Each structure stands twice: as C-alpha cells, then as structure tokens.
Amino acid sequence: MKYRVPFVNYPLQYQNLKTEIDKAIRRVLERGDLILRKDVEEFEERLSSFLGVKYAVGVSNGTDAIIFALKAIGIGRGDEVITVSHTFVATVAAIVHCQAKPVLIDVKEDDYTMDMDRLEEAITSKTKAIIPVHLNGRSCDMQKLMRVAKRYNLAVIEDSAQALGAKFKGKMIGSFGVAGTFSFYPAKILGCFGDGGALATNSKKIYQEVLLLRDHGQKTKINIVRYGFTGRLDNLQAAVLNIKIKHLPQWIKRRRKLAMIYDEGLRDCPEVKLPPSPCSDNSYYDVYQNYVIRAERRDALFKYLKSKGVECLIKDPIALHHQKGLNLYKFRLPVSEKLAREVISLPMYPELKETQVEYVIKTIKKFYGYRA
Questions:
Q1: For residue 213, what are the CA distances in angstroms to 6, 54, 157, 197?
Q2: Domains of the chain (ranges plus CATH)?
C-alpha cells in the first residue's frame, strides 16, 4: 500500500543527501576500507565530541553496546540489573545474555520512562546495575536516578538508543552513567543503512575493555588477550554516519517543530493523551525519536488511519513481561500493561511535511467525531 503519510521515508532522506553519501560510499569501496578503518575512528571522535564524553566505540548494534557495557563492568551470573518492561526486548535480552537476572519496574504514565519512585524498593543485595531507558527521545529523571545509584553504589548504563541528542538539565543523555549505549538502526534519529551502534564512556578502563570485546579480544592482530565477539561497526556504515551526524542538530530542531504542530492540533482532542510538549519542562530537552500518543479505542484508530493512508506503528501490543517465551511473568507492572493497550506512534521524521502532519491531525479528529 502506498501511504499518503508513510511512517518513515528512507528513500527521501537518501535523495536529500545523495551527493554526499554516494561520494563517501564510493571512496570507501574504491579504497577497500571495510573493517575498523579511518571512517570508524572519525565517527567515534565526532560522536564523543557531540556527547561531551572522552570516548566512543563504534559497535555492530545497540544490543551489543549494552552487552559489552555490562560485561565491561563485570556483570555476570547471580547479579541483578534493574530496568523496565516498557522497552524493546534488547534491553532485557542483554542482561540475560550476560547470565544476570533482569528486575523490571514500572514506568510513568505521563512520559513512559522509568518510575523513580519504584526504583529503590527493587534494590537487593544482589543488585549491581541500573539500565534506565530513555524512550521516544525523552530522558529519564537522571537526577533522581543518579542519587539512588550513588547511595547504593550501583553502576548506571544508559539505554539511549532512542534519545541521541536529548538532554536532562543541559547534560547530554548517554553521559551520566558509566556508559551510554546507542543504536543506529535506520529508523533512529541518526540511522545508518543497516545495523550499527556505539558505546560512550568517560572511563578509560571500560573503553579499552569494549575495544577488546568488539574484536575477539585482539589487542593486536597477533596478541589475543581475552575471548571477545564480532561486534564491530562496519567502516562503510561509519562513512554514512559521518555524513549524517553533521545534519543531526537541524534534524532534531525539525522534529521538535513537528512535535509542536502535533501538540497544537491535538490539544483539544481529549480522547488522545499527548507526550510532554517541547516547552513543558525546561529540565528536559526532548528530541522526539517517536511521537507517541495514548488513544481511546487505539486498535480501531490504527485501522482507520491506515485506511486513510496514514502509516502508524503499534510497537509493543503485548507488554514485554507478558511475552510467553521470556519467563518474566512474576512482574506486575500495571502502567506498562496499560500502555501496551493504548500507545500508538504517529509519523515523525525530519523530511515529514507540515501539511502531512496536519492531515494526520485532521484524520485523528475525524475518527473521534470532531470537525477538523
């Protein structure tokens, strides 16, 4: 189906950057610079500078970034790591892959991020780390989280896959904890042409350990100092990211402007609960990876929007702790379960036209019986 308003538009972004990207790809291929070459190093420097941290390591995807971060701080069998259920499965899977135990707590209804009032009660003698998930381009309350983490001497690894460029009280997300992890999946704010990820840190020890973990423990080609993984960021993808990261600030500004249009257009539609406005709280600088609403009769609205040419996404209609194959049934998380029934993501990307956003707004209002 050809949508009047697609959820994402990869071809359009490519066309806008075609000259720059084609030149970068051609250069990489003509030189044969494919694995851990100059483009990766340049991207790591650009990313660490953007985030205001000492080190960044390009890795194969956001999931590996979390796994490597956990392993770098020694998380293993018998350890507990606190995170949330209202996230992509990768967050929890990374904990399990390290043979540790995920402990899930609920999120807040207003912005879907970790409920800090539930954090302290989840801590036990086995708790070693917390993974806050900065969701949809919005930060968790890092002031409260870091206060608790310091009190109990817990490591903080930030899952920042959906929040590159977001800030909390002026400080970049991904720079609060011992490590921040990022995904460059194509639909992300900064996306490559396949899978990619990165880990950011101010710790030289973690940085050096992740360099080993991503490349089979090879300190040099003839000196293998530990077992590692194939977890490198491809040089070709790094070349693409080096082009795109230059446009990131203006893309973020565009997303925030589109969010304001959605806010203004849907504010008088009480059947829809909106995410926090870009101007609602100066502590938060949201980048709107996704524009997610909670909607009455969500599934019917989804079908109606699709019939009218608006492509939306219901990402997780089953709460993660209710997935049969994950063995997380013991957790009772009423807000996460409620959100699974109500949330829907509307189209949100820099190339989206304002007229398209207005059409989405008009279509939602028409579904609920309002004159647009």
A1: 38, 19, 17, 14
A2: 10-246 (3.40.640.10), 248-367 (3.90.1150.10)
